[in-house]
Amino acid sequence: MHPGYAIDRVYLSCHPVDFRKSIAGLSALVEQELGLNPFDTALFVFINRHRNRIKILYWDRNGFCLWYKRLEIDRFAWPRGEAGSTVNLSSQALQWLLEGFDIWSHGPHKTLNYQCVT
After folding, report:
1. Each residue of 29-41: b (16+ CB within 10 Å) or e?
2. Predicted structure pTM score
3. What does each C-alpha distance from 83 to 20, 73, 110 come to in angstroms?
4. Contact 14, 86 (CB under 8 A)
């Protein structure tokens, strides 16, 4: 994504997609299968069935942008789900995912809520 792009939400499509799809096919998939607005200030993240490639689609003022990453050896950690299901992520969690962390097997520290100190 280019510098200055404001990300409100990140949606991961849980089900692998056919990577022959490009901007037109992925934007139609966002609208029809996922039931989301492809023109939102959001990133729509897709994976192939081998989990070694990611495509990220987003709308930028006057056109769609498509970002693509291919791993040479490893695979991306990815949630399981049926076609049409999504997972919402923070932009920080997406960054961790792109760097190779499995954010589903190792969650953050638990939040502690105490009532008093003594």
Report:
1. bbeeebebebeee
2. 0.83
3. 17, 26, 31
4. yes
pLDDT at 1: 57
CA distances from 8 to 20, 43, 108 (A): 27, 8, 21
- Are 91 and 11 within 8 A, CB to CB? no
**C-beta separation of 56 from 67 below 8 A:** yes
Of 47, 55, 65, the closest CA to residue 4 belongs to: 65
pLDDT at 82: 74
How confident is the model over 53-80, as pLDDT tens digits? 999 999 998 999 999 999 998 899 888 8
